[in-house]
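Tutorial, part two.
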Amino acid sequence: MAGVKRARLLPASGAMARHTVNAIDDTAPRHTSAIQDGRNRAGMDQTIIIGSGMAGIACARALADAGCPVRVLDKGRGIGGRMATRRVALPHGDVTFDHGAQYMRPRDPAFAQALAKAGACAWPDGSDHGRQVGMPGMSSVVRAMADGLTVSQQTEVTAMVLQDGVWTLATDAGDLQAKRVVLTIPAPQAARLLGPLHPFAPHLARVTMDPCLTLMAAFPPDSARPFVQRSDPAHDLAWIAQDNAKPGRTDSAVTWVAQASVPFSCANLEADTDDIAAHMLRLLAEVLEVDPRHALYARVHRWRYAQAGTALGQPFLRNDDRRLFVGGDWCLGARAEDAWRSGRAIARDILEGANAQ
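Running the prediction step on this input gives:
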């Protein structure tokens, strides 16, 4: 969305900040260390959140709304994490695929309200489960929640050091400093970043995350559409959805998202993606009773950490001085709402700690 401030990170010897506290301009003069020192001191008061998925953005949104300086970093290209939507140009017109989370089914009234504010709507998929989807894609929900936040994509944090109460984060665009760091990335990634000797390591090691291979396939507009969605945990393609049947999607092609079962995904995770796509396309064509040679598009996305197999069992981890938090959907379960609850719980704990000082 236009309101998201996509800040470019400055190198360690970078330029001064101006215009607003959230917008960084790296075209300004680089001749005064006083300005640089001032910017670093300001950075020491901020919270940096690593991960721009549902948990990270929910946490950042709550902190920003409470007036706390916050910045979000993510190594990926787009906001949303596993709330992901891919746009593809085809001869019949552009199409989109929700190749991560397929839908949301809110239980908490506050989450339902947040979804409504973010433009989500009901998906009439033939079930009575009250499923909702983002418009025009699943990533739109998180992007709407991020409106006005400072988010730096394609920025990977490679190391973190806490010294004298200040975090220094090494990134591929230079060092950053923060008073507090919140990790909202998959548990195995958090464990690698923190290291095996960190006090959180035993807790993170108990969390297991299952992979998921996801096929995105498109067929001509006059192709068969035997169902809107199909769930069969015993099949290699455990979930199949007609993506173009979701509200707000284009109908220039019949688009399908097929997500493989955990056993299939584990067995084929390291295989060549072209081979996986060809195999999954054949499986999909058998279910749809169509000729796979008629496919206009077929690609596979490899989600190495798709969802929690064994959850942490609590909303987040934190140290005693509230300078480091780790959270995400894997803390509570495998739903987008679990990620939202974890992020909100972290923000609430941060604010409670600030008010107690």
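The CA atoms of residues 141 and 161 lie 33 Å apart. In part three we will examine how such features are distributed along the chain.
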